[in-house]
Please model this.
Amino acid sequence: MIIKRTLKVVSLILFISIINYGQTGQPIQENLEVSEITIDELNDIIKNREGKALLINIWATWCIPCKEEFPDLVKISDRYSEKIELVGISIDYPDEVESKIITFLNDFQPSFINYVNVENDIEKFINNLNPEWSGAIPATFFYDSDGKQFLFYEGKMSFKEIENVALKMIK
Model:
């Protein structure tokens, strides 16, 4: 009888922990917000650097390489936030913010801002960031502190790869 009660209590504690904490073991942020972003707003972010370099990462909740790369982006943001602004842009549908995007972000607890793309013309969105980009994700765009694109990379990057480019960019 005591063993059953103990197991129930332990199960309840575990259940509550799973509900209140993401995969990172950090408390789930209740205030995570994802705003819609237009091309004009994105261009304003790129141009108005205020002395910081910029890293833009394009991702989606259904993209396995994006999920694998995201923890490294969180580490980069945490480590270099004084010199690099990191911005995430989901290409999920805007009506999936609550059902998918926030859930995804709660799993990783990013300290950087994330948006959802609202540009319906995907070619316009792609060409605005870089005409050589095929549209494959994840995609990462590096800008210097003047808003000039330093590099873009299609596909998943490792922490070391992101860090190496970031360090070159901020020198």
Notes: The chain is about 45% helix and 20% strand. The chain has a mean pLDDT of 87.
